[in-house]
Amino acid sequence: MATHWVNGVKKRLKKPHDSRVHQDVVIIRGDAKEFMEGYIKEVQEKEHCYFRPPVCPRQDYYYYGCDRGNHAAGKSNGEATQTRANSCKAYISFKVITDAGISGAIIQKMLQHTGHDEANSKEKNRIHPDLHSLIEIWLQQGCSTSEILIKSYDWAQQNGHVDKKDSRFYLTPNDIRLLKKNLRGVGDSDSVSVDRLVYMELRDNICFYQPLHNEQPFILVVQTPFQKQLLEENPHPMVFMDASYKGITAYGYAFYALLLINKTGRGVPFAYFILSKETTATVSLCLQKLQLSNPSFYPRSVMMDRDLRVLNAIKSVFPNAKLLLCWFHVLQAVNRWLVKTDGGHLTPEQRNVVIHAMASMKACLTEEEFLNVSAKKCSEIDTFLDSPHVTTYLKTNWFTYAELWVNFGRTFYHCSSETNNKAERFFLTLKYQFLRGQANRRVDQLLLLLCGDVEKYYSYMDGLSEAGRLTLSSSAAHQAAALLFKNGVGKDLDIEAGQCFVPSQSTNTAYKVNLLHFTCECTNFRMGNI
Questions:
Q1: Which residues pair with 110 in a beta bridge?
Q2: Closest by alpha carbon to 68, among 82, 87, 49?
Q3: Are 107 and 21 spatial neighbours (Cβ–Cβ below 8 Å)?
Q4: Environment class of 505 (CB within 10 Å of its CB; exposed 0-12, middle 13-18, buried 19+)
Q5: Are 313 and 243 in contact (CB under 8 A)?
Q6: What does the alpha-carbon distance between residue 414 and residue 425 come to, in Å, rounded to a whole number?
Q7: Exposure of 449 by Cβ count < 10 A (0-12 exposed, 13-18 middle, 19+ buried)?
């Protein structure tokens, strides 16, 4: 039956135009991807050549081109001793077919390599596979370029390779830099490893997992038992939410960290999201799964950048949470627009006028005051620049979200925070202390790091703080408030339904304080000094 099937497929094949191309039809028993990878590996070992990861220009068709098939650019002109981009036409392709209940593949291969000779040690040949594997391990360990050069040199010497012209064993610093940049899509090993971690070793650390499949994006919501307990102790926190895209997740995935300020005053992450595709729907799904795992969790407020996808996601899942825009990122976004072509390439003096105007608007304590000040400042900017171009941008992009960055929208307890520095500091710690400045290449390694050393670090720091070994600096406002309590301000208060009247320290009046909603009638409160 199988023989008849193969012969029937061969009869329907068209003869290739290139006489160097050989065709074959084989039956696939088992997984098609495993079959193709095994076939490619066998050819590479036999022919001493290498092929790039497959491209799929159409469904069920996989094209493996020679890894030296790129076209040369620059001064090398494709010279094999200077570049690996030699325009080689060699390839192997697979067309996976299923017919009459039998699966197979039509294989086309052209193995006549052009422009290079893998056997010529003077050419810029591929790094030896054993050395390549070691270099990947050293990169994962955070070794620097210089350290890897020395390690690879020692390895070559120990294995009897003495010809420094042989690029398979003796690397240049640029070779190692290229390896660092060689970040590809999720490989099978990474995908399989993530599955194993999610369903076995780290299953108690995962709130939700959706593997990457066809049009289905990769989504992972991570929360360790330590973080879950932290959120139980602080069910209605001010959340600091930010995303990073470079150096932490491979493949350009978005990595979100959600932090809160714990009882010691330290910013601590309580959940992570990893997304291959950022949309309002995917971010909303992450927040929903996080809340499902933590039923009492409902943030009082969320500090974020002005990403409309995230903003809309938070509004849909937590409609009563207050949203705040990081003041630093507001100014940064405005300044970046001003120096671009769209903003008119403004000079530093012109940009300063706009930034100072934004700062004046930021200080407004009521919406009415903001409307008056913004109108006045816009008029001044238009006169100074002799154009309404900039103020039109501000009105369209920032005035519509004024409540999220102006002080009149912050008259509630928000930990005296105006920026997302808690999240930014976490990313710096992760990148330069845990990853040692090296780009992370795999999702499974990131998971092990987050659920391992990162959790231990924050847990240990909390333990030191609780033991009195660490003291955190507090603001002048917090110190003044502590002094008031020490002098007896909180004594003999009649608290009813979460409300009380607190006498002023400077006048004979008393101010109504709502302990449930963190509101007060005093002037300091209206200025945002909670």
A1: 91
A2: 87
A3: no
A4: exposed
A5: no
A6: 18
A7: middle
Contacts by residues 121-126 (CB-CB < 8 Å, ≥ 24 positions apart): 121/163, 121/165, 121/166, 121/167, 121/168, 122/81, 122/165, 123/80, 123/81, 123/167, 124/80, 124/81, 124/82, 124/83, 124/84, 124/167, 125/84, 125/166, 125/167, 125/168, 126/50, 126/67, 126/84, 126/168
Half-sphere exposure of 360 (CA within 13 A, CB side): 17
CA nearest 237: which of 332, 154, 322? 322
DSSP code for 430: I
Q: Is the pTM value of this prediction over 0.90?
A: no
Question: How many Cβ atoms from other residues are within 10 Å of residue 208's Cβ?
Answer: 18
Residue 411 CB: number of other CB atoms within 10 A? 18
Per the CB < 8 A criterion, the answer to whether 152 and 135 are in contact is yes
125, 129, 133, 134 alpha-carbon torsion, rounded to 10°:
-80
The one-digit pLDDT tens for each residue of the chain (530 residues) are: 788 888 888 888 888 888 899 999 999 888 888 888 889 888 887 887 778 778 877 778 889 988 778 777 666 676 766 666 778 888 999 999 988 788 899 999 998 888 777 666 566 666 777 788 788 777 766 678 888 889 999 998 988 888 887 777 888 888 888 777 653 434 446 777 888 889 888 999 999 999 988 788 999 999 999 999 999 999 999 999 999 987 787 677 999 999 999 887 889 999 999 999 999 999 999 999 999 999 999 999 999 998 899 999 999 999 999 999 999 999 999 999 999 878 788 999 999 999 999 999 999 999 999 999 999 999 999 999 999 999 999 999 999 999 999 999 988 878 888 999 999 999 999 998 888 887 777 888 899 999 999 999 998 988 888 888 876 655 555 666 677 777 777 677 788 877 888 888 778 888 888 876 667 888 777 655 55
Angle at 418 between CA 417 and CA 421, to 5 degrees: 75
CB neighbours of residue 85 within 10 Å:
22
Q: Which two tokens stand for residue 501?
A: 């009247």
512/179 Cα distance (integer angstroms):
64
Backbone φ, ψ for residue 488 (5° rounding): 100, 15
Q: Which two tokens stand for residue 320?
A: 């009563």
CA-based nearest residue to 284, from 310, 320, 257: 310
Residues 21, 41: contact at Cβ < 8 Å? Answer: no
- Give the end-to-end CA distance of the chain in Å, rounded to a whole number: 81
Map residue 244 onto helix, strand or coil: strand
Lookup result for tokens 């300063």 = 352
Q: 89, 81, 86: which is closest to 71 by C-alpha?
A: 86
Q: Are 139 and 177 in contact (CB under 8 A)?
A: no
Q: Tell which residue, 316, 326, 388, 394, has the closest CA to residue 355.
A: 394
d(CA 13, CA 95): 12
